[in-house]
Write a structure and sequence with these properties.
Elements (H helix, E strand, L loop, with lengths): L6 H13 L2 H8 L3 H15 L4 E3 L4 E3 L1 H28 L4 E7 L1 H18 L3 E7 L6 H4 L3 E5 L7 E9 L1 E5 L1 H7 L5 H5 L2 E5 L7 E4 L2 E4 L3 E6 L2 H9 L4 E5 H10 L3 E3 L8 E8 L5 H15 L8
Helix pairs in contact: 1-2, 1-3, 1-4, 2-3, 5-11
């Protein structure tokens, strides 16, 4: 194998194959398309063969490319493992780490949890971007993304951080005016404060299956803090994770509504792309967040 073959070229080659285009590979690696193209050309010149057949419409592996692909993946994996071993020996982690998380959870819980992580690893240059849209970790160049709910993307490795229970809540004033629902039928007649990005958010376990309640929508919004505050203002009943409402319940500005059924819960995950060489930093972040949140998490009732 040529001594001047660079890992950046191998990473560009593997990413281009897995993503299906140079443009997509550039987004995944966080570089300009021209940089990735140059690295592919340099790799092919170093090896003395074409690895990819590129046209304006499609890209495919040559025979040499098919033969070289598993070796390239193995080299990258071994390099990542070697870097991890060195980091462990130094007992310090350095360099950039870019993560994304939902706005409300980031403000209420993730931000404070990161202070301890950064105090333990001062060499890490952390960028936290809060966004309620569905972030594509690979395409948008994030090292890791926090997800509330299942992670179906096969390009990602998802590590569980904590459980997340949902509870029905309303203000004492609202319940005094409208009455406290005690069954699914009664709940369906109440004014609901709904999460706009999820059509069937009000799901409850009954007799081994899920039942869905569709209350009359008094407000639809895509932010949990606004939903909580709308409930405190007496606008209706809402279903929220306990990490949003525990303090409000303890202060008495919200009351839990019990209809005798458990609402559908979720889990919090930190997910990262399979080819990221920063996995040691992500692993340290996962462990730090698990310790900060606890099991069961500190926000649970």
């Amino acid at each position: 194998m040529p001594n001047d073959m660079k890992l950046q070229g191998l990473a560009a080659f593997v990413a281009a194959v897995e993503e299906g285009s140079v443009s997509a590979a550039a987004r995944r690696l966080g570089y300009a398309k021209s940089v990735v193209s140059e690295r592919l050309v340099d790799l092919e010149q170093t090896l003395g063969t074409r690895l990819l057949q590129r046209t304006t419409r499609r890209m495919s592996l040559t025979l040499d490319g098919e033969s070289f692909l598993p070796r390239a993946r193995r080299i990258l994996q071994e390099a990542a493992e070697a870097a991890t071993e060195l980091a462990e020996r130094r007992s310090s982690l350095t360099g950039p780490l870019r993560i994304s998380a939902p706005v409300s959870f980031g403000v209420l819980h993730l931000g404070p949890a990161l202070y301890a992580f950064l105090a333990q690893h001062p060499g890490i240059d952390l960028s936290l971007e809060l966004d309620d849209r569905f972030v594509d970790a690979a395409a948008d160049g994030f090292d890791a993304v926090l997800r509330h709910g299942p992670v179906a993307d096969s390009r990602l490795v998802a590590k569980r951080l904590a459980t997340s229970r949902r509870v029905l809540v309303a203000s004492p004033d609202y319940l005094e005016r409208r009455g406290t629902p005690t069954s699914l039928d009664e709940l369906g007649r109440h004014q609901g404060i709904l999460y706009i990005n999820r059509e069937t958010d009000w799901r409850f376990a009954r007799d081994g299956s899920w039942v869905v309640v569709h209350p009359r929508a008094g407000l639809r919004v895509n932010n949990g803090i606004v939903m909580r505050d709308a409930a405190i203002a007496g606008l209706g009943v809402t279903l929220l994770p306990t990490f949003f409402v525990r303090d409000a319940l303890e202060r008495g500005v919200l009351m839990q509504v019990d209809i005798g059924l458990e609402a559908e819960g979720a889990e919090l995950f930190l997910a990262y792309t399979r080819d990221r060489t920063v996995s040691m930093k992500v692993a340290a972040l996962i462990e730090s967040l698990r310790q900060s949140f606890g099991e069961p998490p500190y926000w649970d009732l």
